[in-house]
Amino acid sequence: MSQFHITENSSQYSVHLADLHRLLRSSIIALGVLCIFWSFFVSHIMTTWLDLLPLHTGPENENLSIYGPFDWIEARWSLVLVLAFTSAMPLTSILIQRFSHSGLLPSERSWLSAVLLISTILVPLLIIAVWAFALPKLIGFVKLAGSLDGVGVSYDAASVFSLALGASWILIVWSLTAVSIGLARLYGLIEIAETRLRYRILIISGGTLVITLPVEFDGLRILIAICIAFSADALSRTIPVAPLGRRRFDIMNTQDSEGTPIRLALLDCGCEDSCPRFPQNFEPPGIAIPRCDALCLNKPEQDGLLDLAFHSGITRLVVSGCDGAPIPRVLRNSLRTRGCEVRGLSWLDETSSVDESWRTNSLNDALL
């Protein structure tokens, strides 16, 4: 292979990390403020919810009792956290949407909007439904089915709250897991051969549920954790197919034989299966190798290539099948406006392109 120099440019990553840091900082600050806010109203909320239950409460009725004062205090603070997380979800959804909008294709933006709608808008509504309708109906059914004539029934108030808190916490963890693993897939952090981050996210979410769910969920913790992990991962798998084969390319500044600094992309275009593909073992470091089926005819592939050139600072694009002339004029002008030079290897015009060693030499020459 021809020799060329590589110098890494991390300024763009620093900007993205700074934006991500601001997003996380804003979310954490909002969560803290909401915890303080809800702590002033938690007693009133708990009293109001107890009035919704089909149980007679008051000094002359002993349907609800507190057997462990510390459990009751724990339930109060747990409710504060649930209320804070539930309230912070819509704000976090807006921040994530703003952070991700500029770096996504239209289909990816629509997918992310749908996932955020499900995870951070519908989930809070489900939590409200659990507290306002599901738990009161469940307690009413248990009271009707489990009562005995002549036998008084008393319920532990802390345990009743723990049931609702546990159900809410399950939904919150599922929401955070779905958004986290979805964003990881969307930004190319989880590719076909890179699954460690995916496993870590799923293990963290499952372990969080196993450790933090109340004792009322004993015997179901592992099953719930597995179901939450699989369902969140299944939702993230609905992500649109990457138009260029991958979503993330490790691109670094290189210098050609004349010492000109470039950021190079070699486009493996099949030209509707009429052009030979790149050799499988051809993976030069610091060079983007996007893969297309028919760049001239596929609008999503054109959008993906333009997005790659814009956000990765590609300055030279080398197309395998043609000399670059058949590329739509709008795309060529857009690439030229962004400082990207388009070249071609014209493999379709070369009878020797059927030979893999010839194609390898042709690609090595393109690196110069």
Keywords:
single chain; about 375 residues; alpha/beta; Rossmann fold; 2 domains; four-stranded parallel sheet; three-stranded antiparallel sheet; 10 helices; 9 strands; about 55% helix; disordered N terminus
SSE blueprint and pairings:
Layout: E1 5-7, H1 11-39, H2 42-52, E2 64-65, H3 69-101, H4 106-146, E3 155-156, H5 157-186, H6 196-212, H7 221-236, E4 253-255, E5 261-262, E6 264-269, E7 291-292, H8 299-312, E8 316-319, H9 329-337, E9 341-344, H10 356-366
Parallel strand pairs: 2-3, 6-7, 6-8, 8-9
Antiparallel strand pairs: 1-4, 4-5
Helix pairs in contact: 1-3, 3-4, 3-5, 4-5, 5-6, 5-7, 6-7
What would you say about this model in short?
The protein has 2 domains: 15-236, no CATH class; 253-366, Rossmann fold, CATH 3.40.50. The chain has 10 helices and 9 strands.
Q: Helix proportion of residues, in percent? A: 55-70%
Q: What general form does the structure show? A: elongated
Question: Strand order of the main beta sheet, please?
Answer: 7-6-8-9
Number of strands: 9
Q: What's the total helix number?
A: 10
* Fraction of residues in β-strands: 5-15%
Instruction: Report the end-to-end length measured between terminal Cα atoms.
Output: 10 Å
Q: Main β-sheet, in a few words?
A: 4 strands, parallel
